[in-house]
Amino acid sequence: MPTNHEPRTSNIRLGISSYTYGWAVGVLGHEPPRPMDEHGLLDKAREHGVKLLQIGDNLPLHTFDDARIDRLAARARSDGVRLEVGARGLRVERVTAYAAIARRLGAPLIRFIIDDSGYHPSPSEVSAVLREVTPMLDGLTLGIENHDRFNAKTLRAIMESTGSDRVGICLDTSNSLGIGEGIEAVAAVLAPFTVNLHVKDFGIERLPYLMGFTVTGRPAGGGMLDLSALLSRLAPHGRCATAILELWTPPEPRIEDTINKEAAWATQSIAYLRQFLGSAR
Question: For position 148, what pLDDT does the model report?
C-alpha cells in the first residue's frame, strides 16, 4: 500500500460516480429491490460534501425523457453539484445525443467507453468517428476511457490522429490490467492526453495453488495504486480537471450486505482521497 502522502492537489476536483455505487444502482442479475437513481446519487454527493457527480452508462441518460433530464439539471443546480456524463458505444449518433444531453445538464465532460455489445470498432474507425464529432464539441470535452481491448500505445495513436484538444483520455487506474498493462506504464503513455481520472484501487493476489492471480477491488488507499505518483505524472500536463472515485466492491452473499459494504468503502475512500484532491472549485 502506498504510504507517501503529498499535499492536496487543488487543481484536480474530486467527484463520485454511478460506478462508486455500482451495486446500489444495479448490476444485471443482481438488481436491488430499490435501485439508486440520479437523485440518490445526488443525496450521496451531499452526504459526503462532494460537488461533482459523473453519471455513467450504468444509469444511461439517453433513456431519460425530457422531464427527467430537466429535474436532474434543476436538482444539481440547487445542490451546487457539477455534473459529468458517461456513455458507451462510440458512434457518431451516440456522441451527438450525449453532446445535447451534456449541454442541457451543464456538463462539460462526456466520458465514453468505445465498445458496446456487438460493437468493437477498429482504431481507424474510432479515429474517423472522433474526427467527425469534433466540430460538435464546442464548449465540451470528450474523454475516451482506456478499457481492456486497446493498449496505451494504440489509444495514444488515436488521440494523435484526432488532433483536437476537445478530445482526450479518461484514464482509469485499473481497466488496462485486462490487456496486461499496469497504470504506471499506461500513464507514461497517456498522461499528456488525460482530461479525467477514474480512481479505482485494486489488489492482486496469487491463487492458493500458485498458478495465476486474482485482481479484486479495494477501497481507495487500501490497495496497490500509488495515487501520489500518478498525480505527479499528470500534473505537468495540466489537462486533468477532475478525478472520479469508482469501486470494484467484491459482492457479499446478500445484495443488501453488498450495498452496505459498497457504501462503507465509498466513505473510507472519499476520506482518503481528500488528502490529494480538492472537493470544490
Answer: 92
Please tell me the distance from the alpha carbon of residue 189 to that of residue 140, in angstroms, as a whole number.
24
Is 239 in contact with 195 (CB distance < 8 Å)? yes
> Tens of pLDDT along 52-97?
999 999 999 999 999 999 999 999 999 999 999 999 999 999 999 9
Portion of the chain with pLDDT greater than 90, in percent? 94
CA pair distance 122, 246, nearest whole angstrom: 27
Q: What is the pLDDT of residues 184-224, one digit of tens each?
A: 999 999 999 999 999 999 999 999 999 999 999 999 999 99
**Displacement of CA 102 from its chain's centroid (Å):** 16
Residue found under cell 480538492: 278
In a domain, 4, yes or no: no
- 169 C-beta neighbours (distance < 10 Å), count: 28
Measured distance CA(21)–CA(222) in Å, rounded: 18
- Which residue blocks in the chain are alpha helix, DSSP H? 22-25, 38-48, 66-79, 92-105, 123-133, 152-162, 183-190, 227-234, 255-273
Range of the domain at 120: 9-208+215-278
Q: Is the dihedral of CA 61, 105, 39, 146 positive or negative?
A: positive
What's the CATH code of the domain at 223?
Answer: 3.20.20.150
HEC per residue, 135-184: HHHCCCEEEEECCCCCCHHHHHHHHHHHCCCCEEEEEECCHHHHHCCCHH
CA 226/CA 1 separation, integer angstroms: 8
